[in-house]
Specification:
Length: about 325
């Protein structure tokens, strides 16, 4: 029998949490042979709601779900964590400047980083979903000096999946016919979805589209602003699609990406593609042997270079802002 994997989820009573937990418990996060212990972290006011979700998880009688525990203490919640999904964050409210937002999130991600450092399993894999995801991941990582920096990641898989769907629609192909799409940079409106290296039935995505105006005026802004469009339409932000992307990210991290393809994830930069070392930025990545590797050697033309640089500059500015606040 397999040893159960401890999965800690923060913001468990939120809307992404509600879309995520049942999929984890059913085996979609780690595969159909891996039992899980769920450890849910919430703020005290939301513990009761999280306990309600825990009751529903019980009521599903998932064969792989070994236990569900609810905590309002980060040290307890991350104790023994093999997978840590950091979903709960402080949203931007009206009139809030970027500095205020980063400071408020520092109050969440610093103690969570410390708790991961103190008690998580040696192999812990951290995925930050809560926004601003890249900088929140950097704050947590900075407070977990004993955990290899590569174990901290932020989510751009939703952006990646959005880009896949938009391109498939434009080309009238199945999403499975598109390989090697990339999201570069920050999970924000500056992100750059790159179709120049994408492969679609033997040609590149850009050549298959052959429509620069669509690329610049529709594809890139549609992907980058999709979150806002969902809020406009649904009256609430992306939840099931965000949960789905978190599942994809961790599943691939643990089980590997398919041969002949790659995906996108925000990982610690080693200086690849001119992205300053130590920034958590989105790259084309493959997963091999349980580790993300940045795909090397891609040629970046001036159109892509300009857009990658804009997003990376934003990440550098966020890092300066959190450094000023003493958070990294
Ligand atoms: P909700 O507001 O529904 O839920 C957030 C939950 O986090 C709440 O239950 C809250 O009590 C909890 N929480 C707050 N502080 C906490 C703490 N210190 N410890 C534990 N729990 C805490 O938000 P939801 O729609 O679930 O979104 C969660 C986060 O995901 C937001 O920051 C959102 O911006 C971000 N997103 C990120 C995406 C990505 O692609 N990276 C896409 C979807 C989403 O917008």
């Amino acid at each position: 029998a397999q040893v159960p994997v401890n999965v800690t989820v923060t913001g468990a009573a939120g809307q992404i949490g509600y879309a995520l937990l049942f999929r984890i418990a059913s085996g979609q996060l780690l595969g159909p042979d891996t039992p899980v212990n769920l450890r849910l972290l919430e703020i005290p006011q939301a513990v009761q709601a999280a306990e309600g979700t825990a009751m529903e998880l019980d009521d599903c009688a998932f064969p792989l779900l070994r236990s569900v525990d609810v905590f309002d203490d980060a040290r307890q919640a991350f104790d023994g964590a093999n997978v840590a999904l950091l979903v709960g964050a402080r949203p931007r409210t009206k009139g809030m400047e970027r500095g205020d937002l980063l400071e408020a999130n520092g109050g969440i991600f610093k103690p969570q980083g410390e708790a991961i450092n103190a008690g998580a399993a040696d192999d812990v894999r951290v995925l930050v979903v809560g926004n601003p995801a890249n900088s929140n991941a950097l704050i947590a990582q900075a407070h977990a000096p004993d955990v290899p920096a590569e174990q901290f990641t932020a989510m751009t898989r939703l952006d990646h999946n959005r880009a896949l769907s938009q391109l498939a629609k434009k080309l009238n192909v199945q999403v499975s016919e598109i390989k090697k799409l990339t999201i570069w940079g920050n999970h924000s409106a500056t992100q750059y979805p790159d179709i120049f290296h994408a492969e679609v039935n033997g040609t590149t995505g850009a050549a298959a589209v052959n429509d620069q105006a669509w690329l610049e005026n529709e594809f890139i802004p549609t992907v980058a602003k999709r979150g806002a469009a969902i809020i406009e339409a649904r009256g609430a932000s992306s939840a099931a699609s965000a949960a789905n992307a978190a599942i994809d990210h961790v599943y691939d991290w643990v089980n590997g990406t398919p041969e002949g393809d790659w995906t996108s994830a925000a990982v610690m930069s080693d200086g690849s593609y001119g992205v300053p070392e130590g920034l958590i930025s989105s790259f084309p990545v493959v997963s091999r042997g349980g580790q993300w590797e940045i795909v090397q050697g891609l040629e970046i033309d001036s159109f892509s270079r300009e857009r990658i640089d804009v997003s990376v500059k934003e990440l550098s500015e966020e890092r300066e802002a959190i450094a000023k606040l003493g958070l990294v």
